[in-house]
Amino acid sequence: MIGGNSEVNASPISNISALQDILAHHSRVIISDLETPYSTFPHINHSAIGRNKSTNAVVTEGQQRLDAVSQEVSELDRIMDRIKNIHLQLLNRKDNIIVHSMDSNSGLVSALWRLPSELLSLIFVHCLPETEHLLPSSKLAPMLLTRICRRWREVATGMSSLWCRVIVDINSEDWQRTAFCYDVWLKRSRDRPLSLALKCFKNNTTYLRSLLEPRTNQISSLHIILFVNPFTPELLLNDLPVLQELTITASNPLWCTPSFAQSFSRLPFTLRRLIVAGPAAFDFDRIISCNPVWAHLTHVEIAICQPNLILQLLQLGPNLSSLEIGLSFYDGVSLAFEPFVHKNLQSLCISNASPMRMENLYPDLFNALTLPNLRLLEVRYIRPWPHEELKTFLTRSSCPLESLIFGTGVTTTDEQREEYVILVPFLDVVVDPKRGDYCGYRRLTQRYGIDRRGL
């Protein structure tokens, strides 16, 4: 029997031990305590009871037994209440241990949660895809970084450097939604210079212009990818006061219209780099009509259709340090090259699209040119190779040439390459048949997903 004043007020573990002892004591139902001397004889004549005990005594004894059991039931009810309380305490303790363990382990497993914002910002920069322009996708940084937690979102959206270069691909069928997404992206760049790649389809040039209009003072680099012909350049090239780099990629040569030359000639004097990738070849008229921009350029990649325009470009661009030329559609007319010295050119790459029709061109070109500051020379698709003329060119230029690269379509012998090293000590001569990209067109089309069938 349990005393009425017994308390279970120790720790949950000691309470459990005490309760186990109590339950062990009361787990056995002692039948004899519940029986009377006559309960085992249900069919006897109970008139004989009086011979031994009076009826009142038997009833009193039974009542006492009943009262004792009732008291035991009450005590067990109180014990059950205590068990429930202890159970709740243990559940809360378990929850606290789990939460504390998760907090402790998360701090050990991921130190990122404790990193200062400055260090987290540096990590975010290295999370960006290694591409010139970023694709606005929720599965890629920087948009992915904004979906991890509130703190990461605050840090990422506060870093203007994460949002200043992007590929703009507008679907005119859902213009408002697309424009809103790009507007949010570009607003996060704040006042940083923007580097944009614009995919131009048939009906979206006007949409592109309206999107860029508020930010024309920020655009320092612009890549126009043409999926449409004719092209309306005035919508995208006008009013770009800080533009430094312009790239145009297209597979249709007809995009290069007089209106483009006119818009190009109005570009600001801040422009330093021009890349035109694709088969569109500039002739003399287009070269001249694009003046005076040439005078400020330092890097040019372009296709021309007349060999003498190589010298023309060098004359128009006295500040050029890098020139990559693709020659196409040459009609084979004999040309006279006047001697010309360009003091600033450091890198020259020449690709020939019609190697079977240029036998006399390159000997004459090397005989006319003097490049005293040239450090890299790369040639592709030139047959036959003008070995003696190149030796004369190197001797005359007395240039600090560091690298001479023979790409695909150029055949030289070991003896010829050794002669170049004798003329220019420490010269690195490279033979790489895989270097056959025509004016960067293949590289750019693969990067931005341009397909001839879609143009």
Short description:
By secondary structure, the chain is an alpha/beta fold.
SSE inventory with pairings:
Elements: H1 12-26, H2 31-34, H3 49-52, H4 55-109, H5 117-127, H6 150-157, E1 165-168, H7 175-187, E2 194-200, H8 205-212, E3 219-226, H9 234-237, E4 245-249, H10 258-265, E5 273-277, E6 281-282, H11 284-289, E7 299-304, H12 309-316, E8 322-327, E9 340-341, E10 347-352, H13 361-368, E11 369-370, E12 376-380, H14 387-397, E13 403-406, H15 414-423, E14 428-431, H16 441-448
Parallel strand pairs: 1-2, 2-3, 3-4, 4-5, 5-7, 6-7, 7-8, 8-10, 9-11, 10-12, 12-13, 13-14
Provide structural commentary.
With 455 residues, the chain is an alpha/beta fold. It is built from 16 helices and 14 strands. Strands 1, 2, 3, 4, 5, 6, 7, 8, 10, 12, 13 and 14 form a twelve-stranded parallel β-sheet that branches. It is elongated and about 150 Å long.
Sum up the structure in keywords:
disordered N terminus; twelve-stranded parallel sheet; 40% helix; elongated
**How far apart, in Å, are the first and last alpha carbons?**
97 Å
The SSE string, one letter per element, is HHHHHHEHEHEHEHEEHEHEEEHEEHEHEH
Q: Which whole number gives the mean pLDDT?
A: 82
What is the percentage of strand-forming residues? 5-15%
Total number of strands: 14
